[in-house]
Specification:
By secondary structure, the protein is of the alpha/beta class. It has 20 helices and 23 strands. The relative contact order is 0.11. The mean pLDDT is about 90. Bound molecules: glutamine. The site of glutamine has 11 residues, from helix 15 and strand 19.
Length: about 575
Amino acid sequence: MTKFVVVMGGVISGVGKGITTASLGKIIKEYGYKTTLIKVDPYINYDAGTLRPTEHGEVWVTDDGGEIDQDLGNYERFMNQDMPKKNNMTTGQVYKSVIDRERQGGYLGATVQFIPHIPQEIVRRIKLAAEGYDVAIIEIGGTVGDSENIPFLFAAKMLEQELGQESVAYVLVTYLPIPANVQEMKTKPTQQAIKMLREEGIFPDFIVCRAEKEVDDVRKKKIAASSFVRTEHIFSAPDVASIYLVPEHLEQEEFGQKLLTRLHLTPRQKPNWTAWNDLVNKMVHPKSTISVAIVGKYISLGDYTIADSYLSIDQALKHAGAALDVGVEVTWLDAQRFEQDPSRLQELEEYDGVLVPGGFGASGIEGKIAAIHYVRTHNIPYLGICYGLQLACVEYARAVCGLRAAHTTEVDQNTPYPIIDILSTQKQVLAEHRYGGSMRLGAYPAILKKDSIVEGLYQQTGRLVEDEPKVAQYAREHSLTFSADDEVILERHRHRYEVNPAYVDQLQEKGLVFSGYYQRPDDTRLMEFIELPGHPYFVATQAHPEFKSRLGNPSPLFFGFVRACKERIR
Ligand code: GLN
C-alpha cells in the first residue's frame, strides 16, 4: 500500500515547498523506496499553458505533453525520473471532471456538492498518480490560510481517514523572518500558520523552518511548545549556496529516517550520496568558471526584474557545468539593447558563449538575430533553443543565402521568404482561437544525422534511446517506423512554428547542416537540429532539451555548449 506525505507551506509563498518536496523525494528514494511526487495547484486554469511566465515562472513541459507549473521540473531534476502530467492537478481540472461526470449522469440523481465530491475527485487523482509507488509526496501549492487550499487539505484528511494515520504524514514548510529593525528571528507567523492548519483538522508531524540563517534550539523549542510537534521533528532549513545541498542538509538532522519511522517503514538500503555530493561540490566550488550570456526578453514586474522564466535553462547549464567541473555564470542580456545600439554587439566578446532561449512574439527579435549573426561570424559558441533555432535559420537565410527579407511568419506574416512558418494543420487550430491546443507539445522522437556533432553528443552522454520501449510505443501509436540503424532521441517540445520544409535544401546547400528531424505520419520532415561544421560550437534545436537535464545526467546539447565555452576560456 502506498504511503503519503503531504507538504504544505506557511507564512509566505515561494518559501521552498517545491525544493523541500523534491529533496524529501530524493531522500526517500535513496532509502530504497519507489517514490513519486505530486503537485497540486489551487488555481482555476486547466493547466499552466496560458499562464504568464512573469507571474508563475516558466511553463514546464512533460514527456506526455502536459504544460505544468515549474515545480515538476525540480521534481524531475532531483529524482532523475520522468513525471507524467497526471502528477499535477489544478482546481480547474478537478471541477471540470466533477462537472463533466455530473453531465454524463455519473452521480445518479445526487446533489453534487463541494463536500464531499470535490475532495473525492482530488483523492481519486492522487491515487491515480501514486499507483505503483511505495511513497507519494504531495505538494499543496499556495499558503496555509488561502481559501483555495481548503478542498485539498480536506482531501488529505479523507485519505488519512481511509488509510490510517500511519499512512499519511504532514510536513509544514514555514518561514521565519528576521526583521532588520530587531535583528531577531521571529516564530510568531509560524505559530499562526500552525494554528490555521489546525482549523482544517491538520496537525503537522514535521516543520521545516526556512530562514536566512540556521534556526536555533531556543526557537525550535518555542515552536514545539505552541504546536505540539516534537523538537526533533522541527528542522532548520537556512538559505544555502545551491538547492542541491538541501537534501544533505535535511539528512544531517535525519529527516529521512524520522519520516520513514513516522510512516512505519524501515530503510530498505543505505543511502549513497557520494556521486550526488561530488557533483554538488563541483557546482558550489568550481575550479574555473565560464561566462554565458542569455540573450532574451527582459522581464520586469513592477519594480522587480525576473529571469525566472528560464529557470530550466539555468539549471541545465549548471548540470553540464557540474559534469565538466566548471562553474557557469549567467548574465541576462535584453535583446533590445542590440536593436537600440548595434555597437553593443561587441559586448558579446566578453562571454565564453551565447544562448538564445525559447520565446514568443516580436519583442527583441532583431536584437536576437543580430546577436546570432555576431556569434556565428565571430566564432563564439552558440546554443539556440527553440526560438533560438528558428532565428538562427532566419539569420542564415538573410546573411548567407541572400534572402534579405527572410523572416518567421510569427513576426512578419507577409515576408516573401517565410523560413519559419506555421504548418497548415496548426493554422486551422489557431484560426479557431484554440490557443490551448495549438502547440507541438511533449516528447517527439528525432532521427539524428550520422556522424553529426549532435549525434556525437547524444552518443557521448548516453542519450540515444532507440531501444527504449517508449520510442517503440510512440512509433506504434503514431504509425512511425524507425529502421534498425536509425539513431533516435526523444526531446520535449513547446512551439507552434517550424522550419519551413520548402527552404531546407536551400539552407543546406549554403552549408547549414540539419542534424536531426522528426518524421510526421504524413511523411513531412520537421527539422529538429541545426549545426555548423567548422564553428567552435554553433548548434540549435527546435526542442527544449533543458526539460530533460538532470543533475548527474546532463543534457547533450548543453554538455557540448559548456564544453566549447570551457575550451574558449582555456
Ligand atoms: N515562438 C516560437 C514558436 O511558437 C518558438 C517557441 C519557443 O521558443 N518555445 O514556434
